[in-house]
Amino acid sequence: MIKILAVSIAAFTLLSSSVNAQNQPQPCQSDPHFRDFDFWLGNWEVKSRANGKVAGNNSITSIENGCAVFESWKSATGGTGISTNHYNPLTKKWRQVWLSAGSYSIDIEGGLENGAMHLVGHIWYYTNNTSFPIRGTWTPNEDGTVRQLFEQYNPSTEKWDLWFDGIYTRMDKAE
After folding, report:
1. How many other CB atoms are there within 10 angstroms of residue 66's CB atom?
2. How would you classify the pairing of strands 42-48 and 159-170?
């Protein structure tokens, strides 16, 4: 009888802690760093800063109950790409994994610095089997636009070359 009682108490304790954990707010609901990239949420027209031409449209949505950000890109020439973005409270870093229709991928991480999101990592070009360091910065502007700047490291010149520089203009109201 005592053994059955001990097992029942252990099972109740385990069940009780499980229920209590379910009633606790999830880290992505209570940790404000999960909101660091919210300025990028929305539907956007993206133009090149160099020539002002439309580069494409981008839809950025909050997914998984606010625990991640999903990007869906369509270029003006028909190319596509997606990314998932999430904050890891253990590493205290944001991470983006980008895939572009089988031609390349980007894996970068970092965080919010002085109001702008800075992520660094690597780009892998599948077609020629190469990889280079890459960095991206998303800067919210006072007029509601967002500048996205990507630079790729060039080992030949030992400099960072411009990879993409665009301005995001909302096609919808802020979320």
Report:
1. 13
2. antiparallel
